[in-house]
Amino acid sequence: MKTFDHLYHSLIAYLIGQFFILGSLIGQDFQLKKEVSEDEIAYLQEVIQEMSETDQQYRNYIANETMDDKIIEQMNAVYDKDGIEAYMKYTKSLNLSMDKDLKDSLWVLQHQIDIKNHLTLRGIFDTYGFLPEALLGKNTYVQLLLLMHPPKDWDPAEYLEEYTVIFKEEVKAERMPPETFAKFYDNIKAKILREPQLYGTNQQFDMKTNKVLPPIIEDVNKSNKARKAIGLPLLAEGEYRLWGDQ
């Protein structure tokens, strides 16, 4: 009974805390495309939280080549404590592998989740615009996380072109931070299209040296012009590498 009482009072305290947090959001001007009600705020927070979990539901297993949650927890602990370089070194030392058939099956499940999440997120953008940190808190990053990988079978170049038009308007309306848009753009360019970045925002991990290296751009003048246009500071020497010099 003592344990039940403890859990019950903890739940009540949590719900009261959530009530006051939600109450403090009501009436705020989020600069969205439309005013939001109490129910809409709660809905948006819940949907984004759910998408943050399902986005990695099978992707984590595939990337880490294991379905052992304890091993993945240890990997994440190393990353949180010592950073990406220590994380990569540690994961290499485990020498994990996953059967191709299992990996393919997990990808099928993840792609089904991805398309659902993406269409939901697109509906949010069309209705409200890019959701601000004031509304989502720590989960603001989830929007960028979901955008980083276009749904399977979607042409990534067309995807990038379409969302560039949408997000430049969001940046102009001051709903989307310019850094967020630039990271989205550069990620698609570098990691999916295998082209030089435009804004120079994504550092790259070098598997050979186990070091995090500056982003690769095509031309510093071109990049700085693009950065200036959306309100980012100019790139300085040493903050980038040039395409073709690698």
Task: Describe, in plain words, how this protein is organized in 3D.
The chain is mainly alpha-helical and 246 residues long. The chain has eleven helices and four strands, in the order ααααααααααβββαβ. It has helices spanning 2-25, 38-54, 59-64, 69-82, 84-94, 100-128, 133-136, 141-147, 156-172, 178-192, 220-230, and strands at 204-206, 211-213, 216-217, 241-242. β1 and β2 form a beta hairpin. The relative contact order is 0.09.
Describe the secondary structure blueprint for this structure.
Blueprint: H1 2-25, H2 38-54, H3 59-64, H4 69-82, H5 84-94, H6 100-128, H7 133-136, H8 141-147, H9 156-172, H10 178-192, E1 204-206, E2 211-213, E3 216-217, H11 220-230, E4 241-242
Parallel strand pairs: 3-4
Antiparallel strand pairs: 1-2
Give a nutshell description of this structure:
This protein is mainly alpha-helical and 246 residues long. The chain is built from eleven helices and four strands, in the order ααααααααααβββαβ. The chain has a two-stranded antiparallel sheet with strand order 1-2. A two-stranded parallel ribbon has the order 3-4.
Keywords, separated by commas or semicolons:
single chain, 246 residues, mainly alpha, two-stranded antiparallel ribbon, 11 helices, 63% helix, globular
